[in-house]
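Forum > Structural Biology > Help requests

Title: Can anyone predict the 3D structure of NAD kinase?

Hi all, first post here. I have the sequence for NAD kinase but no way to get a structure on my laptop. I'd be grateful if someone could post the structure tokens.
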Amino acid sequence: MKKVLIVLSIEKPNAKKICKEIEAFLSAKGIDSFVYKYDGISHSPELNEDYDLAISLGGDGTVLFTARYSAPRHIPVFPINLGRFGFIANIEPKEWEGELLQLLNGKQALHKRMLLSTSIKRKNKEIVKYEALNDAVVSGSGIAKLINLDISFNGISFGVFRADGVIVSTPTGSTAYSAASGGPILDPDVSAFVLTPISPFSLSNRPLVLPSSGQMKIKILPARVKDIIVSIDGQEMVSLQEDDEIIISESPNKVKMAGCSPDNFYKALRSKLGWSGSSSPKLN
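Reply #1:
Sure, ran it for you. Structure tokens for NAD kinase below:
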């Protein structure tokens, strides 16, 4: 390993101190590092792509930003949690040195996480394309948010959804906005994504788990709400127009992440989502 990118969240109080420690640690091992200061506003950084590792130093939002940058460049991500929740970034500040040393010595496995590919078409022409580690959300804004969406999967129509919006999430993103909207939680190794309606007009519109080998199409239909957007990982926003189409499928790219073993996923369910109520139930 020769060069490491450190994505530093400037919003976290202790981030700079830990960043200096990481820089010194890497320098002592003859590894160069470059610090990119992430301000919480998503944009495409102009960075040298010749990195062997990207260290995310912040919360889950910093991981999402780092993952979208790193995945197409095949750069592994080492996520250190400085946030309040840290479901994806689950390497704690007191653990980073030991975990990073194991990674450098080849003793820590990297786990692949699926990404969504989201293409937006207007008048049959692609206007923009994004990748997402968590989700793509189509929604209205304002007081009256109800929008009309024609949704199909592999060419088979699901009909018209009337809702405040829909969430299409990866297994990683199934623990985020989708779960808060009543969607199921998927193991990160499951090859699927989840379609979750947001406050649907019909009670029969329930979340669906769909194979990631397929393709979903969401078409914007006429509605009273004119301000409709698609949000990528809650960070990239695109305004939509009537008749726009959002094409969602599994990206050919995957993000390789440290500290994201199946054991850590289920530990996070217990400790951060209170999945079992108690991590060590008492026996009578």
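The chain has a mean pLDDT of 91. The domain at 115-252 is CATH 2.60.200.30 (Tumour Suppressor Smad4).
Shout if anything looks off.
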